[in-house]
Amino acid sequence: MTQPRPAVRQMIDRLIAFDTTSELSNLALIDWVEGYFAEHGVPTRRTFDASGAKANLFATVGPEIAGGIVLSGHSDVVPVAGQDWDSDPFQVVERDGRLYGRGTSDMKSFLAAGLALVPEMLSRTLSKPIHFAISYDEELGCIGVGGLIADLKANLPPPALVLIGEPTDLKIVNAHKGVNGFQTAVTGRPAHSSQPQRGASAIVAAARLISFIDEMAREHKAAPPADTRFEPPYTSFQVGEIEGGTALNIIPAHCTFKWEFRAVPGDDIPAILARFERFAQETVLPELREVAPEANIVTESLAAVTPLAPEAGGAAEQLLRLLTGQNATYAVAFGTEGGLFQEAGFSTVVCGPGSIDQAHQPNEFIEISQVVACETLLRKIIDWAAA
After folding, report:
1. What single DSSP character describes residue 66?
2. 307 with 296: CB under 8 angstroms?
3. What are the CA-CA distances from residue 181 to residues 161, 260, 262 (Å)?
4. In this prediction, what percent of the chain has a pLDDT beyond 70?
5. 4: which residues sit within 8 A by CB, 6+ positions away?
6. Residues 49, 136 contacting (CB under 8 angstroms)
7. DSSP of 242-284, one letter per residue?
8. Is 285 within 8 Å of 295 (Cβ atoms)?
């Protein structure tokens, strides 16, 4: 079976070994990658979060001029807690033509292939720069990359194209849904469960709100927009976390849940949230306050991932078509940082190795053939940058 170059495989091993779960700092990985660039004489820039515990890294191989392409990927991974893994998630295991480990598919293999090819990039006389953008907290709602993009626009020559290496099986994706995530906190009034008339159950109120979210989900599923390329073709809703109550015999005073919707283009995002808020404030909350005037329902935004829209004659899409020979383009339901780059004025496309079906799963893996194909694509990008 065809294998990736040893340097690529070693780089995948190295990046996976960093536990960059979003709740942790990513600085150990950033320090190591920055040192790797320094060894090769490649200039870098960092942008930090407010705490200084997380950082983005931007690097430029080749001339520091306008144009060129950004190879963009996030450094963070989702948690492994509660998942049943057959091996150490942070140590790559090769089995049956696959590489197993957290982040192999989403999306450290793309970054590793690019980093491993830096010496090859430097051995060529590049007429166009190849940039690397490595971000933090993408998994929490594309929180980190905004600082990198702002620094890029304010202080550096603008690149022409951005390639987001999220797992698409190396198919060209020119559109994805937006992601809108929220936390709703319900405050009621506690009471002994034998005296329900004296309490206001935050959990029951939350259940009504969740049922309303499910009702909206069913409505959107029943009436998908025509001619959409998304799968599923409708705006989808999901409640991912819920917490509340203190004991079986105490009417719960507090309940919090996290929920999201992923909107197809054309759906009115503010209207969806406004509808939820009206039901919360005009139907559920008044009933709570009949018993507990202090009751409240507060919803706050956790994530607002900008959708990626097809670009008419988009330069990034045209380049990927040329290099891959693909004519078809795809739309995906998952979100990426691509919408933010596009919103900032950069032509953007999503195309990377691995399958989103493996992302966030126990025993996450990438097919070795996908890694090899990614190397081939990146070498074509080097040829393009050297032309």
Report:
1. S
2. no
3. 28, 4, 9
4. 100
5. 12, 113, 368, 371, 372, 375
6. yes
7. EEE-S-TTEE-SEEEEEEEEEEPTTS-HHHHHHHHHHHIIIII
8. yes
* pLDDT grade for 228, boundaries at 50, 70 and 90: confident
| Structure token digits, residue 39 | 């060894």
In angstroms, what CA-CA distances link 374 with 50, 57, 202, 377, 378? 34, 22, 50, 5, 6
Single-letter amino acid, residue 246: T
Between β-strands 178-187 and 365-367, what pairing exists: parallel, antiparallel or unpaired?
Answer: unpaired
* Other Cβ atoms within 10 Å of 161 Cβ, number: 25
All residues at 6 or more sequence positions from 85 whose CB lies less than 8 Å from its CB, including other chains: 362, 363
C-alpha distances in Å from residue 50, one per residue of 44, 47, 88, 241, 269: 20, 10, 32, 26, 28
pLDDT digits (tens, 9 = 90+) for 68-88: 999 999 999 999 999 999 999
pLDDT tens track for 117-132:
999 999 999 999 999 9
Q: How far, in Å, CA of 85 to CA of 95, rounded? A: 14
Whole-angstrom distance, CA of residue 263 vs CA of residue 22:
24
Q: How far is CA 219 from CA 230, 266, 299, in A?
A: 17, 16, 22
Token pair belonging to 236: 């989808």
Question: Considering only CA atoms, which of 314, 333, 339 is closest in space to residue 229?
Answer: 333
The CA-to-CA distance between both ends of the chain, in Å, stands at 32
CB 339 within 8 A of CB 265: no
SS (H, E, C) 159-177: CCEEEECCCCCCCCEEEEC
Structure tokens at 195: 């005296």
**Lookup result for tokens 């709740």:** 23
Task: Please count the other Cβ atoms lying within 10 Å of the Cβ belonging to residue 278.
Answer: 10
**CA 58, 60, 61, 67 torsion: positive or negative?**
positive
Are 384 and 319 in contact, with CB atoms under 8 Å apart? yes
Asked if residue 196 lies in contact with residue 381, where contact means CB atoms within 8 angstroms, the answer is no
Q: Quick check: 199 and 191 in contact, CB under 8 A? A: yes
Tokens for 375?
């190397």
Who contacts 192 (Cβ-Cβ below 8 Å, separation ≥6)? Answer: 198, 199, 249, 250, 251
Find out whether 89 and 349 touch, Cβ atoms under 8 Å.
no
